[in-house]
Amino acid sequence: MIRQRVLDVPATARTLGSIARHKAEKNGDKIYLRFGKREISYRAFHEITNRLARGLQQLGVEAGQHVAFMMDNKPEQLLLYFAIGKMGAVSIPVNSAAKGDLFAYYLNQSDSVVLILDAGLIERYQAIEEQCPNITKVILLNEAGGAVDLSIGKDLRAEVYDYQALLDAPADDLPDDLARISDFAIMMYTSGTTGPSKGNMVPHGRLIGGAIDHVEIFGYQPDDVLYTCLPLFHGNALNTSAIPAFLADATFVLSPRFSASRFWDEIRENGVTAFSLLGAMVNFLWAQPESPRDKDNKVRLCMMVPVPDFAREFEKRYGVKVTSVYALSDYGFITFLSPAHPPAKWKSAGLPATGMTISIRDDEDNPLPPGVPGEICARCDVPWITSLGYYKMPEATVEANRNQWFHTGDRGYLDEDGYLYFVDRKKDAIRRRGENISSYEVEQIVLGHAAVEDAAAYAVRSEMSEDEVMVSVTLKHGATLDPADLIRYCAKNMAYFMVPRYVEILPELPRTMTEKVEKYKLKESAQARLNEIWDREAAGIVVNRHTN
Q1: How far is CA 185 from the centre of its chain?
Q2: Helix (H) / strand (E) containing 183
């Protein structure tokens, strides 16, 4: 493994709480977090998270309990991760686009007892409160800052509090023994394919250990500025930018959301030296008109997942170095493509992470030789640097870890030098604009429509070479259905990014002898005649985060 910086992190500083205290003592008033005009130093970050943790304790929240929060990108989200971790509780980040049955599922499956959310999202919770009896406290955050008018929650069964009031608690340190490196710190949901989304139990050790790997392999220095516009309720923003910047004694810049037209201006304005891009984000930036200012930036490293064919041209155009990783919310970081790796390996996902072993296996779990694609499997001999399993899903945990290997559900191959090359996903998941979408969840919600008898959701490729959601449905006898009506139904009951773009009504779905839908047949047929299929964008129906 190629190392570019060796971190001196005490063995006692391997939890979110202990690392916050360690970095506050080391870096003091140096700016850690920047969000627009807001700046928070390392010392202030530690003190604020102490206050939040103690404020939650004063409300009766205890170690081991699960605290959900749902909000758009803002410093409070990152502060809550650390505060909840400090008190030995578990963070449940909820996608801010979730609504209806999906929102209720996250809260119930995670056993959350407290919900913290942007005040502007309260109607989302009011609509499902009767489905969520375990939520006893709702804490509202004023998106514009300042106090919240708590009367907006007067009709809730749960007790309602103001987030700002939590900050009145003392700022003194919490006891060290509330959290250990092996303790469950964060639940990250991943898309289900043969069932509902699974909650990945992420220990403190994985959060800190993965960040140490990032800093050492990519050589992040105290004068670096790491940037993300990806949502903090996803693992990428947290684990490739926010926490690595913290471990590197660097500055972390958080943006509300991705904008291709504003992206490079933000990079220049903040003096960014490293950032991460997912999926079609790269395509959108590449499609922007060339400008004399393209190389007018301080960026050293640009992480792309996956690495596109035009990565070399991207490097030349913007004057950056492309890096990559192969990682899963279900497990952790498996490989890193370092800037020091041979140029000939630029299309790979790099070499195994610390303590990681990779094996490519066939459908019978037999190992395959270099160059032959199969399922990517991994195992690690470093304690607590991978996920602990799926919450309340022991069978799925055992299945994923069969024969002492974690099975990723992805296909790839190793070359003769041990570099990993990603080929495709075995999992029946859809990835749209950086969002992982469970086809199962789309199907379950579509099946709730009164006219629908059966449904199959799957990915088709769009103009930007990324996944778009398509659904094929059959109708109940005598029923009729306008595709636009189905879209409106979906928009009310699922996150906006899950809402299908393409809808096709069929007399029947192709099935195997065991009654499983043959989605590959649907996909092949649809892809070949996509311009003939009903398309909500062509129909002029707009679905976004503001759609009611």
Answers
A1: 15
A2: none
Question: In which order are the strands placed within the sheet that holds 406-414?
Answer: 356-361, 374-380, 406-414, 420-425
pTM confidence score: 0.83
Q: Convert 464-498 to b/e letters by CB count within 10 Å (16 or more is b).
A: eebbbbbbbbbbeeeeebebeebbbbbbebbbbbb
Q: Under DSSP, is residue 31 helix (H, G, I), strand (E, B) or coil? A: strand
Q: How confident is the model at residue 516 (pLDDT cuts 50, 70, 90)?
A: low
What mean pLDDT value characterizes the chain?
91
| CB atoms near residue 272 (< 10 Å) | 23
Domain 17-26+40-196 has CATH 3.40.50.980: yes
Percent of the chain scored above 90 by pLDDT?
75
Rounded Cα distance, 38 and 257, in Å: 16
Tell me the per-residue pLDDT of 350-369, one tens digit each, with 9 for 90 and over. Answer: 999 989 999 999 989 999 99
Give the number of other CB atoms < 10 A from CB of residue 376: 29
What is the spatial distance between Cα 229 and Cα 275, in angstroms, rounded to a whole number?
9
How wide is the angle at C-alpha 139 spanned by C-alphas 136 and 143, nearest 5°? 155
3-class secondary structure, 529? coil
Fold of 429-535: GMP Synthetase; Chain A, domain 3 (3.30.300)
